[in-house]
Write a structure and sequence with these properties.
The chain contains eight helices and six strands. It is an alpha/beta fold. It has a six-stranded mixed β-sheet, with helices on both faces. The N and C termini lie far apart (50 Å). It is a lipid-anchor. It holds the Pfam family Ras.
């Protein structure tokens, strides 16, 4: 239990996309390894947590499932705030959910941290015979915006762990490694306020 309670960082991640694309089942598959074929539309917002270790640091991901239906938009907009990562999900068998991605991204960028990490997720690859959005289209959409991309199936669990873990690794690089690099660079800059004592302050390297 102690290992479950200990963490070095806690990060808020949101799942967004149209209603019915499989966000809730992606969340339950990742956090509980469960899939509910009778899953109903999420009312409001719910979240689950899961820990992951990256380079010796324990990350607690607090993953929020925001309802996709328009009538809940006023509620869910609050939950974008302080999010550092987002899985933006569409259903590969329903083209309109892919066409709505930009709307979701615009809302995310309006409410979330400007440096939020994003992965585009094409879900329901178990229904590939009903596919209406090609893998190449999804990849191109993500590449144009410099986002990560992956296709998943919450039903058979294909790439579900990879989708969340890849996003957390991206967040780690941005939140931890880049911050440490900046701090290291700053620490190497030693200000010299005494212009009359240049020789005594000079670096001996």
């Amino acid at each position: 239990m102690a290992s479950e309670e200990h963490y070095d960082f806690i990060w808020k991640v949101v799942l967004i996309g149209d209603s019915g694309v499989g966000k809730t089942n992606l969340l339950s598959r990742y956090t509980r390894n469960e899939f509910d074929a009778e899953s109903k539309t999420t009312i409001g917002v719910e979240f689950s947590t899961r820990n992951m270790v990256i380079k010796g640091k324990t990350i607690r991901a607090q993953i929020w499932d925001t309802a996709g239906q328009e009538r809940y938009r006023a509620i869910t907009s609050v939950y974008y705030r302080q999010a550092v990562g987002a899985l933006v999900v569409y259903d590969i068998t329903k083209r309109h959910t892919f066409e709505n991605l930009q709307k979701w991204l615009s809302e995310l960028q309006q409410h979330a941290d400007p440096n939020v990490c994003v992965i585009i997720v094409g879900n329901k690859t178990d229904l590939r015979e009903q596919r209406t959005v090609t893998h190449e289209e999804g990849r191109a959409f993500a590449d144009e915006r410099h986002f990560s991309f992956i296709e998943t199936s919450a039903l058979d669990s294909s790439n579900v762990g990879e989708a969340f873990n890849n996003l957390l690794i991206d967040i780690f690089k941005k939140q931890v490694e880049e911050s440490e690099a900046k701090a290291d660079t700053t620490s190497r800059v030693v200000p010299n306020d005494d212009s009359t004592n240049d020789n005594s302050q000079a670096c001996g390297c």
